[in-house]
Amino acid sequence: xxxxxxxxxxxxxxxxxxxxxxxxxxxxxxxxxxxxxxxxxxxxxxxxxxxxxxxxxxxxxxxxxxxxxxxxxxxxxxxxxxxxxxxxxxxxxxxxxxxxxxxxxxxxxxxxxxxxxxxxxxxxxxxxxxxxxxxxxxxxxxxxxxxxxxxxxxxxxxxxxxxxxxxxxxxxxxxxxxxxxxxxxxxxxxxxxxxxxxxxxxxxxxxxxxxxxxxxxxxxxxxxxxxxxxxxxxxxxxxxxxxxxxxxxxxxxxxxxxxxxxxxxxxxxxxxxxxxxxxxxxxxxxxxxxxxxxxxxxxxxxxxxxxxxxxxxxxxxxxxxxxxxxxxxxxxxxxxxxxxxxxxxxxxxxxxx
Length: 353
Known about the structure:
Layout: H1 2-29, H2 33-53, H3 57-78, H4 95-112, H5 124-140, H6 146-154, H7 156-177, H8 197-219, H9 228-246, H10 248-254, H11 257-280, H12 294-298, H13 314-351
Helix pairs in contact: 1-2, 2-3, 3-9, 3-13, 6-7, 6-13, 7-11, 7-13, 8-9, 9-10, 9-13, 11-13
């Protein structure tokens, strides 16, 4: 049975790899922007499935939500600012980029031959850093999910940098496309008519469930796949779905662009503020063990998390909770800001007519 399982897993990997190659070739050959975007969405979805097969559930979650979900919506909105088909260029202009791409691909394949085997317990990553995480996480952090412990605690400063990069990307898109009159749009008319009744009713049912699922992913990140990045994107999906069904004008009235940018900045400040509090209490930046003073930590009930016999690290638990919340706010607000930047351009053009 073990040999059959290995062969089936190998066959599944080969099939997924072939699907990725077919999607990649199709993306390179198509001249339709719409087709290219949809093919990239399929590529992301197949990549997510492959990551699940590779036991990387957290990364697969992110790839499915960001790659196959929000990125597709944002790119489709961006096509409104461009022509539907790409221009044909002289094939001689593509020789140098093609040779460079092939050369880089050959170098990557050559470098991959020197990598350790998949799942090799003696590899440097598994024998040193990975083994240390597996052995020390329960004692140092006290959360079951190793990925959350690594990203939010052991490498909390790196994750703060990622949150800042996401925030900077949102601000960059807003500056490039211009804020324009979208943030000062008048309230939507009261009479919206009865068009698309089915979509409106379905959206009213789905949006609360999407928001609830985002909170589930957020608070479930300590014990399973999830966290602030995935939850933030799911939260943004609820706002984007509202804009697609009810119109951008009404969504801007409910979630103004200024509010979205403010929330994105608030998330980064919340994340960094946790580090500052740790410094004030005598620890290092993002040293969650110093988030609470010993006097305050002694006042926290031992059975707060339902396991009085387990030695909890309250600073680690609450520190991870607040920094993940900061990531949620930054990611969700930044995604909404980027969507506003692209989708609002059509309204600007109509306003200038």
